[in-house]
Design a protein that fits this description.
globular; Rossmann fold; 8 strands; alpha/beta
Length: about 270
């Protein structure tokens, strides 16, 4: 079932709610520049295992509203809280990919894990998507500025280049076409404004506040969010388990979907 939930600034957030009669809930938060349909192989798998799957389109992406402003992590975390509160979700396993992982961490930090009992981070864009003085991994700010410029000058080509970097091993051309079509479906302003957030947001302090059981799944060959991100998270989150995905890149939930699904299922059912 699909429906919309209004946020505090009246943006409508699209929610796909599958198997809603189940009390066991997984909430999926997609990454940039995607939408909830990228989780197709999880949304096929988990309802059949008895789980309620709630997947959102972040503002500016998919079928959600496309306001021109407010693409910072705080605002998007507050959007997630509105979804959780309106649906009265409890004991959630929160799953975030890439920027969705960053928003998940911001949510847990800002709202003291409200409604969430477990966290799964897949290729998360944290603690910082760009290199800092104390964190020498990721892109330079100058490179992300180039991305923003490319997005504003030839967005279709830019997104095709991004899609081509998502995967490590052979992915069929139809799969790449499908994946690229999801990215193109995003609003142009949401696309570049989230790049600004990815460039400017830092989550070092937020990570320190996480004490939930946390599963970290990360493609060993990730070109978008280097594997060092996962090692940092595993070191800083005390109650965490890191499972390296040795045969995938940033799109691990597609490339190694069976391992991702089974690892997540085992983690939830512990």
């Amino acid at each position: 079932m699909k429906y919309f939930i209004k946020t505090s600034d009246n943006a409508r957030i699209l929610v796909e709610d599958l198997n809603s009669d189940s009390e066991k809930t997984i909430l999926f938060i997609h990454g940039w520049p995607l939408n909830h349909t990228a989780f197709e192989y999880q949304l096929d798998f988990f309802p059949d295992k008895g789980y309620r799957c709630v997947a959102v389109d972040l503002r500016g992406f998919g079928e959600s509203d496309r306001p021109y402003n407010n693409y910072d992590y705080d605002t998007m975390a507050s959007d997630i809280k509105k979804v959780i509160d309106v649906l009265n979700l409890k004991n959630i396993t929160l799953v975030g990919h890439s920027m969705g992982g960053a928003i998940s961490i911001k949510y847990i930090s800002k709202y003291n894990s409200h409604g969430v009992s477990k966290l799964c981070l897949i290729g998360a864009a944290v603690p910082s998507w760009v290199k800092t003085k104390d964190f020498p991994y990721g892109y330079t700010q100058e490179k992300v500025n180039e991305f923003i410029k490319d997005s504003l000058s030839d967005r279709p080509k830019f997104l095709k280049d991004v899609s081509d970097q998502f995967f490590f091993k052979y992915i069929s051309q139809p799969m790449l076409n499908w994946f690229n079509s999801i990215a193109l479906n995003a609003s142009p302003w949401g696309t570049f404004k989230c790049l600004v957030s990815l460039r400017d947001e830092r989550l070092f302090d937020d990570i320190e506040k996480i004490n939930l059981p946390t599963l970290i799944l990360h493609g060993f060959h990730d070109l978008i969010c280097p594997y060092e991100f996962a090692k940092y998270l595993n070191e800083k989150i005390k109650n965490s388990t890191l499972i390296p995905l040795t045969e995938s890149g940033h799109g691990a939930f597609i490339e190694e979907k069976d391992k991702v699904n089974k690892s997540l299922l085992n983690f939830i059912e512990k």
